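FAQ: What does a multi-protein file look like?

Like this. Sequence, then tokens, then the next protein.
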Amino acid sequence: MRVTPQRLVPFAALLMLLVVWSLAGAGSNEYFVYVGTYTRTHGKGIYKFRFQPSTGKLTPLSLAAEMPNPSYLAVHPNQRFLYAETEHEGEDTPGKNNTVSAFAIDPKTGALTLLNKVSSRGEGPAQIVVDPAGKGLMAANYRSGSVALLPILPDGRLGEATGFDQHHGAGPKPKQDRPRAHGGAFSPDSRFAFVAENGTDQVMIYRYNPSTGTLTPNDPPFFKSRPGTGPRHLTFHPNGRILYSLNELEPSITVLSYDAARGTVQPIQDAPTVPPGFTETSAPAQFQLDRAGKFLYASNRGPDNIAVFAIDPAKGTLTPIEHVPTQGKTPRDFSLDPTGGYLFAANQNSDNIVVFRVDAKTGRLTPTGQKVENVPEPSCVVFVPAH
């Protein structure tokens, strides 16, 4: 076929379009990484990085938002809004700085613009979590032992609490002198909300109405963990049939079968997060599953490592694979990047973030050699696509 100038024009246009698509695709494969911190020493707030999964390169950018103790962050499902709690740590000044802030995310620069902030309705919020529909945010208040539901408005701002529950009771250990709500999770269908009650050894269960933003105690209203375990965080398996509870005061993970119709759970396994024969102090801080639901990762403060487990595809039970040092002190948080190829460990007491490569077939972790120093008291890591 003879190629004429007239044929070259549409071909050139097509070639240019392919180049544009290629560049757009490359940009969409990069992420902004936001790190929440404590600001008790030299920290100033939320820090921003840029991450390129194709190369594994993590580039520090700037301070994204100056605020006191943004110790935990949550991202809206639409990736346009970031939420940060302010955790006031004193026991003697009720109501001070116990708030949740809403930020708009610039998709090109990653800049954060404060939209508003509202009260968490309690003292010392430990975790915030957004429901799968993006209509509500749940705040677990550790120091006052309560939970609040904050509605998310269409423009990303937060409304004043429409749901609230004050917990009661205590546990057998010194740190369980009163209720201490710590972590939360919504069921995949947004019908139920769960709260890890660290002080009373309970997993609280609520019926959740996204339209009204209300929390109503389920029947039964809680699952009772073994005394002294101290539930800290909760997460669902991608299949929606298993709920995992990370226990802080007894280093273990409780595997719970989940009845989606009734919102109830039943225990099927307790898996230690430390190796057999380990006798030193360990306080698990965070855990996360990979997207395929094949592996579970949990951080241990004390031995300062990540415990890696294989997940039984039929039962959801856990089998230990390895324990990997985080190359820092007190891994308060870690997070798998959206591709699942990397794990970012935030070592609070050594002010660094260490990046590990994740083997998709075995779940094992290998240090990449990337260690970002001088990140003041990092306590939370989240990812947002860059455009």
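And here is the next protein:
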Amino acid sequence: MCSRARIHIVLLLGFFACGVSAWALDDPTRPPGYALPSAAGTAKTSPWRVNEIVIAKGRRHAVINGRRVRVGDRIRGARLVAIQPDAVHLQSPSRRWVLPLLNGTVHKRPRVERQ
């Protein structure tokens, strides 16, 4: 009876090991550039972090790495080409990035109708 229990345990561990290997598959529904943490607990990081996006009448800016920037400004070798309510677009000579606003703040001022 003891040997049967050992066989069952070995078989169960084998099934769990097969299931763990499936976790490494890429998810086609994730956005481009998304990186899950690796086994060591580190994720592929970007040199930029979008802290805040401000959109108001006649004014639009973002705070990236703690620095306020507008369209056309350069930050760490890339030029800011667009600011959207949920992301900013950066471009360098060789690459283009879309940086989402994650856990940050979007400031929108409501349009006030004046009579």
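Q: Is there any per-entry metadata?
A: Some entries carry free-text notes. For the entry above: The mean pLDDT is 75.
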